[in-house]
Amino acid sequence: MRTRKIAAVAAGLTLAMTVAACGGEGAGDTGTDTGTDTGTEETAEEEGGAEEGGLIGVAMPTQTSERWIADGEAVKAGLEEAGYEVDLQFAGDDIPVQQQQIDQMITKGAAALIIAAIDGTAISGQLEAAAAAGIPVISYDRLIRDSENVDFYVTFDNYQVGVQQATSLLVGLGIMDAEGNETDVAGPFNIELFAGSLDDNNAFFFFEGAMSILQPYIDSGVLVVKSGQTDIEQVATLRWQQETAQKRMEDLLTSTYNDGSKVNGVLSPYDGLSRGIITALQNAGYGPGIDAGMPIVTGQDAEIASVKLIADGVQFSTIFKDTRKLAAQAVVAAEAYLAGEEPEANDTETYDNGVKVVPSYLLESDIVYADNITELLVDSGYWSEAEVESGVAE
């Protein structure tokens, strides 16, 4: 993520924080993950952080996805603007590294922790230490599981994200129109399903939401999962890795579509996976774009490489989760705890982490198609026209 983009995210965060405070109220990877803080920390004397607000630890899972870089920098910018010192760390998708980073944040005297966990079940020891020290823990976008020591959860409505992914797949196949109304197109269409990493609680919400829409069409024969792989354990992608998705798509084409049949659509829960899937399909002779036989492929996070593919008619859709608003909500929650208050939740029933229902604040997401890229992504300042045209963040 280049400097200008980080500045734009920080600028957008200021507006998003204002909205949040008034309302109560992610075909290739970029970046090299070193597991270290990419920001320059301000001293307490320069910003008054330690004196005014103290230190807040921000633990992000990786830098190999541009959305996590943007999230980390946006949270850091918002907290620093509010007068806090920030220890931002990226863990390189390495669980022991993230455990060590959180341990160090606690040792350094963090007043609060904002954690996007690699594995939502793997940091119970760190959470116990935080609770013993009276440090509130805010789970960021990925629900931390199997621990009572999680105070709050900020995320998007992840079940609805899955619903939107499935809806966009049906729109692309012509089974639904853009308004979500059924058409007279009856299929059958061959589709394949992909899910995220089983150690990420969100993967289950995405998949369940999607299947709530797709299952009736599978049952009626309008959609056919030709591989027969319909359980999340069969279709999961460890660590959300693009290469893993590409290999699985290649294997499906070899094992299931070697009889002259064609794939018509692929449910993909994340843009990185989508690009791997698309690469496998193109290498097998599909495409290059939808008009030339590329199957309908969904996605999530509005990563700039995939936004360009959508603009170019290669990938069909993605889900835009404005992470500037998510970062702002994490800042609002942290400020509430450090002021001795409880942050406002708009969901106190859905997110059971196996030990407790974690009070949550859910944000809304949008489906991005080629014809609304400008409206949703450019006009909002998330990406520029030049970035969409090049497929590269500036």
UniProtKB/TrEMBL annotation:
Against PROSITE patterns, the record matches this protein to:
PROKAR_LIPOPROTEIN
The residues the entry assigns to the signal sequence are: 1-21
Keyword Coiled coil on this protein? no
Q: Where in the cell is it found?
A: Cell envelope
Annotated GO molecular function terms are: carbohydrate binding
Instruction: Please state every residue range assigned to the domain named Periplasmic binding protein.
Output: 56-342
Please report the name of this protein according to its UniProt entry.
Sugar ABC transporter substrate-binding protein
Q: What is the lineage of its organism?
A: Bacteria, Bacillati, Actinomycetota, Actinomycetes, Micrococcales
